[in-house]
Amino acid sequence: MNTSERAVASLGLHHVLPPYMLEHLAENGPERLREAARADLAVDRQLRSARAARPIARYGTAAEAADTTPNRTVYDAKNRRQLPGVEVLREGGQPVSDIAVTEAYDGLGATFTFWWEVFGRNSIDGNGLPLDASVHYGRDYDNAFWDGQQMVFGDGDGTLFNRFTVSLDVIGHELAHGVTGAVRDLVYEGQSGALNESMSDVFGSLVKQYAAHQTAEEADWLIGAGLLAAGVQGTALRSMKAPGTAYDDPNLGKDPQPATMTDFVEMTDDNGGVHVNSGIPNRAFYLSAIGFGGYAWEQAGRIWFEALSGPGLSTAATFTEFAAATVAQANTLFGPEAGAVVADAWGQVAVEVVVELPEGDDPVVDVTQTESGAEAGAE
Amino acid sequence: MILTLYRSGGFAAVAQPEVSVDTSTLPKDEADHVESAVREARVAELAGQPAAVPGAGDRFVYELTVHEGNTRHTVKVTEPFADPALGTLIDLLSSYS
Ligand SMILES: [Zn+2]
């Protein structure tokens, strides 16, 4: 389907009304509400199917939600591949001499603080979910990942990579996968997967900037600074400011990230290049943050998070759809000038944005769908 | 028995060049060790997993092929593994890179 669709913005009623009441409204409610209720029902079904896929293993209990301080546990996997390993540090415990344990514990603390102080979000799920991390996973293991329940960090092989707890933004990145899973579980494949990756780089970088009190102009916008082993030619693993320039090394190869949609890479590895094409939305975020100036989490970060969590975004969102959502949120939250800053940022990375500004009291957003099979179902 | 292992994905997304091991070229003890690791991991019984599992990120994807006689079995698996024997096999094969 290549036609432009006009979707009526939903009312957000699915947050407060059970589905049977929405169905009643959609059938028998006042005419003005019927269409919106139908849109809400579509969103509700989408959220339900996302929940059914269990993007996070569990949500915090009432007692956990009432506690707005972090609840961290760090485990030592002892160079094996079994999770979680042996518990070595629990919240408030005595400091340990193992630097990887300390970095993981402190990094989780800084990440928790960021989400709580900037977004009022109590942990990954907003319900105080305990934060678990395992360090020393595997042998010479060149990776960090989020398995859907916890963070996992390898020691690196020492030749190409150092230990993966070394950069705060890497810890922030992994935890952000948990947040994305809980908020809008962007399918980890192709463009929606690259958006999922970009969210983690964006919020991972913001965690680092917030901890260092850096403005957008002061920040280095690097992901994984300190991660490349001594002797590797490069400054970091990725650059949000200049994708494709982070490293160029005989052993590691060259940073493969494109900076604009023109250079989008079609590939099958890496779930369709989720860590490669994330360079495009990463740079759009950087350009927005620079366009606003000051602390990036105050406007750009808020816009990105609201666009991610807003009810209109599909879990299979394309760059174009996400761009439209960010421009709409910028308009709503900070006015049309902010919308123009964000639209210009996407324009600079050659991602098409199709947004109709709100008219009167009826928020109407135009979403142009360029791919079949990406229907949000709200019409 | 010819085994190949290809690793992609992960936070750094730097693919590991394909590792290939032909046990007929190895000393007998070593060949036995590799072949028993393949049996322990029950590779022949493994079904492929979907590449995109909800709610996770940055996990390595391993493509493992076992070629023995006329049979050839290829499976794509994503970390972490429920069975530790699979991790042991992957570490063992990676040591030939
Ligand atoms: Zn990631």
UniProtKB/TrEMBL annotation, chain A:
<comment type="function">
    <text>Extracellular zinc metalloprotease.</text>
</comment>
<keyword id="KW-0479">Metal-binding</keyword>
<dbReference type="Pfam" id="PF01447">
    <property type="entry name" value="Peptidase_M4"/>
</dbReference>
<keyword id="KW-0964">Secreted</keyword>
<keyword id="KW-0645">Protease</keyword>
<dbReference type="Pfam" id="PF02868">
    <property type="entry name" value="Peptidase_M4_C"/>
</dbReference>
<protein>
    <recommendedName>
        <fullName>Neutral metalloproteinase</fullName>
        <ecNumber>3.4.24.-</ecNumber>
    </recommendedName>
</protein>
<dbReference type="InterPro" id="IPR013856">
    <property type="entry name" value="Peptidase_M4_domain"/>
</dbReference>
<comment type="similarity">
    <text>Belongs to the peptidase M4 family.</text>
</comment>
<feature type="domain" description="Peptidase M4 C-terminal">
    <location>
        <begin position="185"/>
        <end position="351"/>
    </location>
</feature>
<dbReference type="InterPro" id="IPR027268">
    <property type="entry name" value="Peptidase_M4/M1_CTD_sf"/>
</dbReference>
<dbReference type="InterPro" id="IPR001570">
    <property type="entry name" value="Peptidase_M4_C_domain"/>
</dbReference>
<keyword id="KW-0862">Zinc</keyword>
<keyword id="KW-0482">Metalloprotease</keyword>
<keyword id="KW-0378">Hydrolase</keyword>
<dbReference type="InterPro" id="IPR052759">
    <property type="entry name" value="Metalloprotease_M4"/>
</dbReference>
<feature type="domain" description="Peptidase M4">
    <location>
        <begin position="74"/>
        <end position="180"/>
    </location>
</feature>
<dbReference type="InterPro" id="IPR023612">
    <property type="entry name" value="Peptidase_M4"/>
</dbReference>
UniProtKB/TrEMBL annotation, chain B:
<dbReference type="Pfam" id="PF20242">
    <property type="entry name" value="Emfourin"/>
</dbReference>
<protein>
    <recommendedName>
        <fullName>Metalloprotease</fullName>
    </recommendedName>
</protein>
<dbReference type="InterPro" id="IPR049457">
    <property type="entry name" value="Emfourin"/>
</dbReference>
